[in-house]
Amino acid sequence: MATPEFIKNLRSTAGHQLLYLPGVTAVVFDEQGRVLLGRRSDNGEWSVVGGIPEPGEQPAQAAVREVFEETAVEVEVERVVLVQTLKPVQYGNGDICQFMDVTVACRATGGEARVNDEESLEVAWFPVDALPEMREFATFRIKQALANEPTWFAPAEDTEPGVAGVGVTPEGH
């Protein structure tokens, strides 16, 4: 996954210590009710689209940008699905990050789904009743987006469904 330049700059002085970072996840549906997924190049697994907002970028803007950068699909953000602080993760190079994930439900408005950068091996639309195998991180977010309920906030004792602790790259970011 490409590391944003502002994080590289932070790492030049912060070293590998914990960085608390924003993250966005986009659950994108088309007019047929299918969900857009990408098969990630870092682990080969299918997941929803996600990324890190740039400094000053609003979460909805970041979601729109990330979806287009990764899939060439244009979207409109419709609502916030969930907000959750994930457990810290440590990457292979020793960097430690903790993400505050804002997941949004989006509606596709244009473009043709295709691999649009180096972060995905494949991009495809899936009927929600025929999803490929995915981590609970992704399936939980799709479920919450489909529920069309008020925004879900993690309780203080949340064990973060599908998100592993230090030592595992976080799903979606």
3D structure, described in words:
With 173 residues, the protein is α+β, with helices and mostly antiparallel strands. Helices cover 20% and strands 35% of the residues. The protein has helices spanning 5-14, 59-71, 136-147; strands at residues 19-29, 35-40, 46-47, 49-51, 74-85, 89-90, 96-110, 120-126, 152-153. The strands form two sheets. Strands 1, 4, 5, 6, 7 and 9 form a six-stranded mixed β-sheet that branches. It has a three-stranded antiparallel β-sheet with strand order 3-2-8, with helices on one face. Strand 6 (89-90) and strand 7 form a beta hairpin. The longest helix is centred in the middle third of the chain and has 13 residues, at 59-71. The chain starts with a helix and ends in a 20-residue tail after the last strand. The model is unreliable at 162-172 (pLDDT under 50).
Which range best describes the helical content: under 10%, 10-25%, 25-40%, 40-55%, 55-70% or over 70%?
10-25%
Order of helices and strands: HEEEEHEEEEHE
Strand content: 25-35%
Number of strands: 9
Shape from CA axes? globular
The residue-averaged pLDDT reads 90
Looking at the chains present, what oligomeric state does this protein adopt? single chain
Which stretches of 5+ consecutive residues score pLDDT under 50? 162-172
Radius of gyration: 15 Å
Major sheet summary line: 6 strands, mixed
Tell me the distance between the termini: 8 Å
Structural class: alpha+beta
Number of helices: 3
